[in-house]
Design brief:
This protein is of the alpha/beta class. Helix content is about 35%, strand content about 15%. It has four helices and four strands; from the N terminus they run βαβαββαα. Strands 2-1-3-4 form a four-stranded parallel sheet. Helix 1 packs across helix 3.
Amino acid sequence: MTETVYNVLFLCTGNSTRSIIAEAVMNRVGQGKFKAYSAGSSPKGQVNPRTIALLKTLNFNTDFARSKSWNEFSGSDAPKLDFVFTVCDNAAGEVCPIWPGQPMTAHWGVPDPSTANGTEAEINLALMDTYRMLNYRISIFTSLPLASLNKLALQKHLDEIGSREYKVES
């Protein structure tokens, strides 16, 4: 008997940093149980070079990484999505895409590190914080006993994951 593989789409505005990182992390952490994709409501057309550099430093394969529109996932030939997570940051005044249809959805807002200012080290720290926050949330999600949760309980977990504060341990 084969285990179910759940399709997950991470959405943000530009699909150049946060959703790309989430896609990479999910495909590593959830390998065999989840297949991740990413897209944007207004894709920038290219992945942020700092994102590629970070992922390579963390030994991720970046061949998958390209900035694309969420329209690629709305057609009849698109994969059937089980989960859609928005990772844009409402606090920054971004408009997050809304996904129609039947997948379970949640908002896991993360500040956009591509707008970080400061020294090279400060900008890289903002990018690494984004990675850590997404890795933390995705790790919690992938450990949920999906088969034993009803939809209401699962939705509660998804919403709680998105509202968790990530604390850097010193």
